[in-house]
Amino acid sequence: MTADSSTTLTPAGEAADFFATVRDFARDYVRPRAIELDRALPAEFDWELVREGTSIGLMRMGIPKESGGLGLGAVDMATVIEELAAADPGVALIFGGSGLFQTPIVLSGDARLQARYLAPFISDEPVLGCNAVTEELAGVDLIIPDNAIHAQDIMVARRDGDRYLLNGTKKFITNGPLASYASVLANMEGHPGATGLTCFIVDLDQPGVTRGPVADKMGYRACLGGELAFKDVVVPAENVVGGELGGWDLNVSQSNMCRITCAAVSTGIARAALEKAIAWCGERIQGGKKLYQHQFSAGLLAQMTMKVDAARLMYLHAAKIADTGVPCPEYEPAVAKLFADRAAIEVADAATSLLGARGYVRDFGMEKILRDSYGPRIYEGTWQALSIIITEGIYRSEDA
Amino acid sequence: MAPPTAHSGTASRDVAAGVSVIDTERRYVEGIITLHDRMTYGRLPDQISGEPLHVHQSGDGLLTLAVRDSQLPHRYLLGLLGFRLAQYLRLGWVSQPVVYREALFHEPLRPAVGQEDIHVVSLCLTTGRIRGYAALAGSRDPDPLPLDGPGRTRLSVEKDHKIDLMGRYAAEGWTTHQVYEAKRLLRDQTMPRGELGARVPWHVLMAWGRALMALDEFLPRVLVAGDAKESGSLRHLRRMGFRLDVVEGTSPGLPETDLLWPIFKTDEQAKPFVGRLGPDFARRMDTISAFLARPLGSEPVGTLLGELS
After folding, report:
1. pLDDT tens for each residue of B134-146
2. What ipTM does this complex have?
3. Is-catalytic flag, A283?
4. Longest CA pairwise span in chain B (Å)
5. Which of A122, A160, A235 to mutate to test the interface with B (most CBs of B within 10 A)?
6. Does the distance separating the beta carbons of B103 and A237 come in below 8 Å?
């Protein structure tokens, strides 16, 4: 079966052992808990799952080897994320969100920031990080550089001697309710809109940081998201990543890289839906034959398989380019994510229809996958934002 | 917690940036100490490769292991070296400016040549925190060399005290690969000074001694070198049954560019020593083992000291 990731996802070398461990973890530990995780209250957040994932290396995938991490590249990282997302995309986001906190620090090349803020993730003690960008009035305005001037009421950073004071509120922050650390984008005082974006590494367990209510999300419920409010939060000057006003470049680079793993999440969701459909259509008999032997069902299954395979190949293509060149491209990850996000929704929808009543009943997990499938088209670029990035890429090539 | 200071430089200020170097250095060091206070290693026993040189679990909730470098996953090795650094920072025995300048979060890794280092770690089974630690550093000579060989790699103690400590032990059949340097007998400085706290060094010393016995059998014969204070580890080593040769009258010191230079700024100077396992070493190890097997609260550590004296 081509939709089985094993045909295309075969990391080599050291990554192969890690990938095999993750596959076991996803299949034997995460998947059996997925429905329970989906229904759990925020107070029941599964720290034990995080501890298990931490112990096998999921919290240190992108950390360089010399710092105690696994030093995975984009291809290996994305294949691991697909594996987790196929079991539960919320779990993929717990680890992926922490990786998003780490990315600016890794990109910065700042040895002291790396020592202080990457080392906690090599411990057995589970620690979460988060990347705080989105705000009440600004989502895409913090992703599309041309929108920066129009951004409203952005979190403000004010220099005060050898420190900065942060004031403002971040919304819908993955891992925000529980994270120990955040990479925070704030706008330097005096710069209009979001033209003064600067990235700060912030210890969240300090005075002035308030965690708002946990967002009651439609999907990805294993992973908590919420509001982070900052009131005169002190950040030492050495915790600026990429210098003052360096936030835009950093965020663009990070988003380009991140879209590859986001596409892998979408692919994982689509694959989970396809696997359920394949299993059901292989056992359910109607009109004297199995469902897959009925033409319309077969057509749906073929279309679903095609979409999963194509989504995977597209994110692998983008990841290979990212692994072999600097900087990470803008176009390929955006194309991969745009396709995979749509594929997740379409494949989940088709699978739900094939499963009939079982697709509509919560105990079978299909409706969870359907809900989860709508998440990826929001974060790290809506389809509208991705479309702008892609078309700008096309016309940039045409003009050149 | 503000760590003790071990500054070598004078306060400087980057006027243009308005950032005090001393303040950033202090924040960095405090951050490293805090970082290691939070780190846990509960899965370490399950993730070592092969058989440890020694392992024992005691009724007081500690698991103590002696393992070689290569038996540890890299992240745990960094963690152990980080524990060492954090404890030395707390004790004021390492240079904060060097830690800051080199962006250290762990002691530097030693080159992977020659004999491997051995790490003794005492872990709290409940929290996974390191409670005690000691190391036996192996020779860096890729091949074994005579102890008076001109090309042999000098031990740290020889460099620090500016002496040739091992040359006098040159004899047929003795090589640099049979010499281990005792390093970093440490207790978690955040641990309360209770009975368990008093037991931790003995758990570590016992595992350290058992590891030496295992090496002694394997090599065969080992020498232990190092430096220690008369009022501290030298007493413990004698109680353990080491036959010690102690060198008097050295003037140890390191340049202020060295990570460890502050360790010699002290009222009582450590003395170089070479130790061999004495004839009753094994019996004394058994005595320590028997004491540590007794439940916490049954007898104070003073009882053990009496039994070993």
Report:
1. 999 999 999 999 9
2. 0.88
3. no
4. 66
5. A122
6. no
